[in-house]
Design a protein that fits this description.
Helix content: 40-55%
Strand content: 15-25%
CATH class of the largest domain: Alpha Beta
Oligomer: single chain
Shape: globular
Order of helices and strands: HEHEHEHEEHEEHEHHEHHHHHH
Number of helices: 14
Structural class: alpha/beta
């Protein structure tokens, strides 16, 4: 009895140390799934989060004021202890504070790491596990680990490999020079990254979060295809008019600030913004939306005058000023005419 009493404190300390070690070894990951009118897709999205090989997860599903049957489908998971459901009557799209009600989801979450999954997309089972494994082997300066992914074209039932860049370290200048670095649903992010940039922005919950994070933390990546983004007729990107106005607002609010300019150069920032404008100009013209295309192209020129030498810009301007019937004929013959009509509604 005396022997047991003598060693009891030792056993207690060892037990608690073991518990503490296991907790450190398996940090909690919060997967946030915002949903708006995706009744066809949200069940698969939630199931892919629950199917992760890494088990210490919580799933925060946000019904962002859906008017279809999305909430009923989400509520099928209400008895699962890993799933929490947040419901809101109002749809809060990007471009407004607390877009997607993402800030509400961050406040509700408890994870040391945050991962975002849109309700029409899905994860492969080992996505979180492989990203956490990399986090355990890299410097603390890395706040974001992303991966590559696949696109799934719903109407053709075709999947293709899809990634933007393969860069690590301080990647902000890569964002400016070559465009986006991460697929929006691919990053696993240390929680403090949202404390740095805030989660109540007009772009919260979008890929713009990661562009702004790249100003402050290093990035790394798992060189595998671990997420799938579904391409379908209801993607937010199809609402090109509202997305265009939203991106202008994002740039003015986040990129064209003194603090951001000090961390890079006005030249590179303008180049990134002009490139985005030109991309929209081309997207508009293939839909024969001449007025918006003209606005985007001239915004590109005003932002970066050297874009006058860009071949793509010259082609776009030619199509803008040709008679509509001629532009339509050229685009049709070159298979560039979009079958997607212009849609300026908000998400």
């Amino acid at each position: 009895m005396c022997f047991f009493a003598l060693f009891l404190p030792f056993f207690i300390i060892v037990t608690f140390k073991k518990i503490e070690f296991n907790m450190k070894k398996e940090p909690l990951v919060s997967i946030i799934i915002p949903c708006y009118n995706y009744e066809k897709y949200v069940e698969k999205s939630i199931e892919s989060a629950l199917a992760q090989t890494y088990k210490n997860i919580e799933i925060i599903v946000v019904d962002n004021g859906s008017t279809d049957n999305s909430l009923s489908i989400i509520n099928k998971f209400s008895t699962n202890k890993k799933v929490r459901i947040l419901t809101f009557e109002n749809n809060n799209p990007p471009g407004k504070k607390n877009s997607f009600h993402f800030h509400d989801a961050i406040k509700e979450s408890k994870g040391e790491y945050i991962s975002t999954l849109y309700a029409d997309d899905w994860y492969l089972p080992d996505k979180i596990e492989k990203q956490l494994d990399l986090f355990s082997r890299i410097p603390d300066s890395v706040g974001v680990v992303y991966c590559h992914g696949s696109g799934y074209i719903e109407k053709d039932n075709v999947k293709f490999k899809w990634h933007f860049q393969s860069v690590r370290g301080y990647v902000f200048n890569d964002y400016l020079k070559k465009g986006d670095v991460v697929i929006p649903i691919s990053p696993l992010v240390k929680r403090y990254c949202y404390k740095i940039i805030g989660s109540n922005n007009i772009w919260s919950g979008t890929e713009y979060d990661f562009l702004i994070m790249s100003l402050y933390v290093d990035f790394d990546f798992v060189d595998e295809y671990l997420v799938v983004m579904r391409l379908h007729n209801y993607n937010d990107a199809k609402n090109i008019g509202s997305v265009y106005r939203r991106v202008i607002k994002f740039h003015n609010t986040a990129l064209l600030t003194e603090r951001t300019i000090q961390r890079s150069s006005r030249f590179l920032i303008n180049r990134r913004i002009a490139s985005d404008y030109l991309t929209f100009g081309l997207d508009f013209i293939v839909r024969l939306d001449v007025e918006n295309s003209k606005d985007a192209v001239f915004n590109a020129l005003r932002t970066h005058k050297f874009y006058i030498f860009k071949f793509r810009l010259l082609v776009c301007m030619a199509l803008i000023y040709l008679p509509r019937s001629v532009s339509k004929y050229i685009l049709d013959k070159t298979n560039k005419l979009s079958s997607t009509p212009i849609n300026t509604c908000s998400w």
